[in-house]
Amino acid sequence: MGTLYIAVPHDPIPLALWMHHQFERISDSGGTMHKRLGAILFVLLVLKSGSAISDQRVDFKQAHERYQSAIGNNDRDSARDAAEDAYRLGLKIYGKDSINYARLALNYAGLLNDMGEYRDASKVLKKKVGVFEQAGSADDIELVLYELGRAEFDHKRPDKGLDYFDRSVEAVQADDLGGRATRAFSIGTHLMKRQGDRHTKSYFEVAHTGFEALLLPNDLRLGLAKYHLGLWAYREARIDDAIGFLEDALVAFASEAGPLTDFERPVRSLLIALFEQTGSSDQATPHVVALGRGQDWRQQQPDLLYMDTAPTMMVAKTGIRGDVHLTFRIDATGNVTNVGVSSSTNAELNELARTVISTARFAPRYQDSVPVETDGVGYTLIFDFTKPQSVKALGGSPPVRGFYDGGVSQRPQRVDRSSGMGGK
User: What is the pTM of this model?
Assistant: First the structure.
């Protein structure tokens, strides 16, 4: 724990002694007993006030130490309680227009935001931007705008929160690419958690620009930024761009051997879908094989990675239904061969079932670290055309949601803006 520096208001004790001396001088020069009694009472009041402030400083220091300890131990509840105590005591010691008090408010509001208490955070941060602007504290301005964005964002009425977020990014020096990228990325991931996915694109673009200029291709932060831009390209049906971003993201996510990483699996799954949908099945194969390496074959059912359901549109208006149980072989590249029907509740659907399953890609089984074919795989397709059917067009929402951040934008320890406090 670092040293705590606190800016202390003017000590009233010397002032009281000076006032006492002045009243004695007046008394000696002919003042009345009434004046002397008044002077004594005044001094007693000032001394009492000084004692109260001294006690508040002790309480404040203890609260601040509890806050720092809780932050260090990742005890968010205790940190929030201690930050609240320090914030309330700081008002009495420093005054509402002090930068020290504003920094205490920033500590407290940040924890309130972390815990989803956005309305309370907004109240705590009221008028704090002006305090920091008057003090010319650039880092504090950037952070208070970010915390206000978190406090004010509402996915139904997003403009106010987004305005604060934009100002937060702009408050970072233009030549500080890393700072801008990190702040923009944290905003993008926060918006995803708050149902603000559709507002994330510009923030991930800023993050990508900064990270790409500063980081190596295998850096997780750059990989995440590329992944999010890949999802945006998919949503906008820019398939070549989506594939490019996702393949670049794999440089940071992919594992050479052993289990797949949590980031790697959904990226490979999405690439398989993109390649298959665009008729590039061979390019999907390396990703199919890689997912087979991470499959647990102790389970009876192999992982289905892709299947084209478009052929079902041929019978979408027939109103028929039925179950078809199929048997087939999965080769070493995850393709389906030797398809047969072992049982069916509606023979009219048998050929459709064969067609659909033939488009599928399964994770291949591994033996001695090598993908091998597997015979006798069973799979049941259930058809129900008694309700209207539709096939989703390419683009739109991807089959997987974006990662939040994998801890990239989470500060390992909350910045204590009130350490080293000085000024008024």
Answer: 0.77
